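Researcher: Please predict.
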Amino acid sequence: PDAKKALAAFEKSLWLCAAPDFTIVEVAHYSQRGRPRQGQTPKVIIYRIEGALASRPEQRTTRPSRIRRESRDQNPTLRWVSQLFVGIYLLLIQEVQAFVRNLNDLHGQVLGVLGPPYEALYS
């Protein structure tokens, strides 16, 4: 019950991701090291939540009107370009998979102008 409450509270704190598939695993801890004797009751039982995160594509961040207005300029400043990429995140899953989050069409256009080395960083 406490693990389910903790998961529900954690899901409420997520605004770009959800945890749709999860399991609650019971982990027993005994008072002595090594293999427990047969029938020995654990000293403490801890519940661990295991699962995967999924993105919520309907949750999009909106750019301020100032950025939209400056994006139409023919000569954007380096400051504008660097501020445009604030909020782009790299999501690492167990150091095996990496996902770039919050990249949109405008970012793709700017990366196209910056060239292949920058496109490779954000792909």
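Model: The helical segments are 2-13, 65-71, 78-84, 105-114, 116-121.
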